[in-house]
Write a structure and sequence with these properties.
Helices cover about 20% and strands about 35% of the residues. It is α+β, with helices and mostly antiparallel strands and about 425 residues long. The protein has a seven-stranded antiparallel beta sheet, with no helix packed on it.
């Protein structure tokens, strides 16, 4: 009897399908049973680690992880210098000028852009330009919606320095076959997988002796896992990527970099001044400009949670329901821009950032795993070291942000 195999699958013939074969053919297909147990241990204390375990991890064979992060071209920039009123040149009935930009690299020939809040005609239209050349920080362009009189004169408003410039669509001529290339090369970044490890021991006599609380070795393991996860949570958020050489051990030790420093996108607010309008601005900051998913998670310190909980919400910003997701109890803040799931993070309090927080897009956070969470029993009796039951809990992993601008730090200016 013939067996049909899908072109994109791998068949197993004449052998029973076992977990070993499955892991060899499709690594990571079977969820590690230890992870299933870990996510049940105090999930609200380690929300970042909880979410990272609920997704699909990427396997890596090296401690130093190379990955690529890419963002779309910026949609807007600012003028670097002012342009005086009525200073543009009129040549053959067309108005042209050269404008210094703070980030001219986002433009190329055939692009169009708009100067926001600056009218070029009595009708109140915004100035719209067609790019003819980009040289250094200067953009040469033709004003599209200029109103040139029959006498060849034209009047326009002044363009101030730091005026907002919005990149619009490209415009090609009828005979154009090609256009300037669009470059969005990902940037190579790296992080280190840290070796997280903890050991639990209990003497044989302690294990055999009764106790009032019914405390067992499994209870010891659960507490150890909880403590280990808390340490990992702190490293995943605020760790600093580094490598040192331990002279005594003559070995390298790797430290993972936290996601807090993997994005430059920041929202600042003044302590005691967070209002419903501030929350609208926060949502605008979080969900606009290469914004990613319409649902994001806010890990917040207790001070920020208090400030958000005391707000008077409006029709456009609501926070009325609780959502259960990833094994967490989340408060949903819904705005016109998108939904933010709010969860208190003990780590922010512990690290002196009770009034700060971080908005993370769960779809663009990746966990790299060198060694998944494992439990190894040590036979210390057989080796003649100690008469104890001992296990070592180990995981070698790190977290990275893809599309860094899809995430945002919230910092309180105290």
């Amino acid at each position: 009897m013939s067996t049909f195999t899908q072109p994109d699958s791998v068949g197993v013939n004449d052998l029973p399908l076992t977990t070993q074969i499955t892991e060899e053919i499709a690594p990571g297909f079977i969820l590690n049973d230890v992870d299933r147990q870990i996510v049940k241990i105090r999930p609200m204390a380690t929300p970042l680690d909880q979410i990272s375990r609920s997704g699909r991890a990427r396997s890596t064979r090296t401690i130093e992880v190379k990955y690529y992060a890419v963002d779309l071209k910026d949609a807007a920039t600012q003028t670097a210098a002012a342009i005086a009123a009525n200073s543009m040149d009129v040549v053959d009935g067309q108005v042209s000028c050269s404008i210094a930009m703070k980030n001219a690299r986002i433009f190329s020939q055939t692009d169009t852009f708009m100067i926001a809040d600056t009218s070029s005609a009595p009708g109140g239209e915004n100035m719209l330009f067609y790019v003819t050349e980009v040289s250094g920080d200067k953009v040469s362009a033709i004003l599209i919606n200029a109103r040139v009189s029959d006498e060849g004169t034209f009047q326009h408003a002044a363009i101030p320095a730091e005026a907002k410039v919005v990149r619009m669509a490209r415009a090609a001529s009828e005979l154009d076959v090609q256009s300037p290339q669009y470059q969005a090369l990902p940037r190579s970044k790296s992080n280190n997988c840290q070796i997280f490890k903890i050991q639990v021991e209990e003497s044989t006599l302690q294990r055999l002796a009764p106790n009032q609380a019914g405390w067992t070795f499994s209870d010891q393991e659960e507490i150890a896992v909880s403590d280990m996860r808390m340490g990992m949570e702190r490293s995943f958020l605020f760790g600093s990527r580094a490598k040192i050489h331990d002279l005594e051990k003559d070995q390298d030790i790797y430290f993972t970099g936290g996601i807090w420093n993997q994005t430059d996108k920041t929202f600042n607010y003044e302590k005691g001044q967070l209002t419903a309008n501030s929350l609208v601005q926060l949502c605008s900051r979080v969900f606009t400009g290469q914004n990613g998913s319409p649902v994001k998670v806010l890990f917040a310190g207790s001070g920020l949670v208090d400030a958000l909980s005391s707000l008077d919400y409006t029709k456009t910003i609501s926070a009325e329901r609780t959502v259960a997701k990833w094994g967490l109890e989340l408060r949903e803040i819904r705005s016109t821009y998108g939904a933010i799931y709010l969860v208190h993070s003990e780590v922010f309090d512990q690290c002196g950032r009770a009034n700060d927080g971080m908005v993370v897009d769960p779809n663009y956070i990746t966990k790299y795993v060198h060694t998944p969470f494992t439990v190894e029993k040590l036979d210390l009796r057989q080796s003649g070291q100690r008469n104890t039951d001992a296990v070592v809990l180990t995981e070698i992993s790190c977290l990275v942000l893809r599309y860094p601008n899809a995430h945002c730090r919230i910092i309180c200016d105290e």
